[in-house]
């Protein structure tokens, strides 16, 4: 039989043992709960890591795609830059050609301006010549009108030669020569010295030699009048021939 003290000590030991078992059980439960919490957290962390990894992979893929697009754009930009450089060179060449053409056009314009000035000068000269020609034509028309009033009944080269080459005596020759000189002098006064010294001196020379050589003046006057040496108008030549012809008729 156990004594009271022994029984009390035994109960005390049993209580301690129960307490220890309870403590161990509680510790075990706590350790099991901690392990469960750690596993859940770990799984959650793993899920987060995987999600982040997938997001990173997606971002990496997008970055690679954008990088590829940027490289393509860079290649296109380089090609465009090359084309723009070629166009710039072509434009510079065209600009240089246009400047050359502008210089040539300026030279042509200056030449055309010079030609225009020359043409204007020629036009002025032609106008002056035309005015002179019109004046000459008017003068000739007036002379023809005057000559028409002095025409004899018969006028031909044969009759003119016959009149200037008629046979007269010495007195007739002198009178004819004087008539010729008088006709030339009157015509010179009318036109202001038109025949000149040569024609008049020839007539005076004919007059001075007519007395000694009656046939000389006829040959000289005939040649001079027919060759136009006196530069006399037609009506005056006809007038001279008429005077010679009238002297011939009077003998």
UniProtKB/TrEMBL annotation:
Positions of region (Disordered): 1-49, 74-96
Name of the protein described by the UniProt record: Uncharacterized protein
Stretches with biased composition (Polar residues): 31-41
UniProt feature, compositional bias: Low complexity: 14-30
